[in-house]
Write a structure and sequence with these properties.
There is one protein chain. With 527 residues, this protein is α+β, with helices and mostly antiparallel strands. It has a single domain, classed as Creatine Kinase, Chain A, domain 2. Helix content is 46%, strand content 12%. Strands 1, 2, 3, 4, 5, 11 and 12 form a seven-stranded antiparallel beta sheet that branches. A hairpin with a 5-residue loop joins strand 2 and strand 3. Helix 6 runs parallel beside helix 11 and helix 10 crosses helix 13. The longest helix has 23 residues. The chain is globular, with a radius of gyration of 23 Å. The protein starts with a helix and ends with a helix.
Amino acid sequence: MSELLQRRLALLGASEHLPLLGQNLHGIERECLRVDADGQLALTPHPRALGSTLTHPQITTDYSESLLEFITPTEPDPADTLADLERIHRFTYAKLAGERLWSASMPCPLPDEDTIPIADYGSSNIGRLKYVYRKGLALRYGKTMQCIAGIHYNFSLAEALWPLLQRAEGDPRSARDFQSESYIGLIRNFRRYSWLLMYLFGASPALDAGFMRGRPHQLKHLDENTLYLPWATSLRMSDLGYQSSAQSGLTPCYNDLPSYTDSLRQAVSTPYPPYAEFGTKKDGEWQQLNTNVIQIENEYYSSIRPKRVTYSGERPIQALMARGVQYIEVRCLDINPFLPLGIDLAEARFLDLFLLYCALEDSPLLADGECRTCTDNFLKTVKEGRRPGLHLQRRGEQVALRDWGQQLIDAFAPIAELLDRQHGGDGHAQALAAQRAKLEDPSLTPSAQVLAEMQAHGESFAQFALRQSQAHEEYFRATPLNGGQQAAFEAMAAQSLAEQAELEAQPRGDFDAFVAAYQASIIGLAV
């Protein structure tokens, strides 16, 4: 533990400041495929009873019409965030007829590429833009890759915590810059240590064999229909025999916010020859928003992002450049197929410890190849994290994953003590102990349990995930929402449909001009 972290924890542990640790905000986005009773991809339209995917604040779709995305409100207590997520699941099941939610991150057996439906957001210009963006993703990467699901964990520290730290440390920067650069420092540390999350929570060591579509790969056959790697933790976060050559040079090292936003701005406005060969239109029909390295900021695939709530019509880069970083979005978490929500309170509490450590610990700039080392450690862990005796690179030396992990758990312990003192009980200490046990015994990790369960039941990946999906469906249907909760969701769905209808009733204007203006909003930004 650095002197900086010791000082910060002492400051936050003072009785007058401890309540700040109860004001962190949490939000969860959970993606999941709709499947039919046999575990095949549901090819039906998004249920209208769930509301409009364009305007509903909590229930939408991600890439495919079949890929639901649930978005919770933000809450100070992650237990409340999970309760929000559970209510969204229960409402959704009340509106699903003959379909269920897929339990795993890796998809069910998929139909051919042409059959996978792209999400439809209606006839408004913004709805069409969202659709064309997804057509571009299909063109560039294929539809199969876009059917992978995950959990995104949104986290922010108390707004009042940053000026407290800044005063205590005599930092001369503006309040906005101090907060933004502190979040960028969090992200640098996340890059250093996120391999640990992959080891502890990775839950995708296997996948349906059809997923690879005949592409070359290094996976092994567990059975005729299942591919896996014996020591893998998260094949979802590996290259899976697939890489975006366009994005290979786009690796922001998060040494400051301006360099991050500029790298994305350049990517959104720099042509990429192979995409230029496709063109933006074919036979008069839009097939991608532009021919650049990425069409929009969200196309950059990263394990964590700095974020700022956007105003209406504002793009993410614009918000970051104008007002700085407000929170971070952790994007590398697998859905745990043993859990109805894909995540539980113990995992959320550990994530809080991990992210607070990353935020409060010293975070030197990534230099001398450390950025590459961070990526290598991450990829090594997702492919062989449970391999006995596995070593990672730390400051130019080999260190055992297990030893480094235990050292980090030790470093989180004082933070767990402060959070438990603020919240009452010992929930954070228990969450820490549960993760320490996984380092001591890899068979306790979700990835190991998935393989053990499949082998114990003689199941393929698809059979295992379908069985878990059925169990989760029974769990949610067993306890419907109460009348007030159901009515609130019904009203939200109706409101979203009304908002989309109102949007589509307005004069639409030329879509080509709309796309051009959207593109220009980034190109014209000052660096």
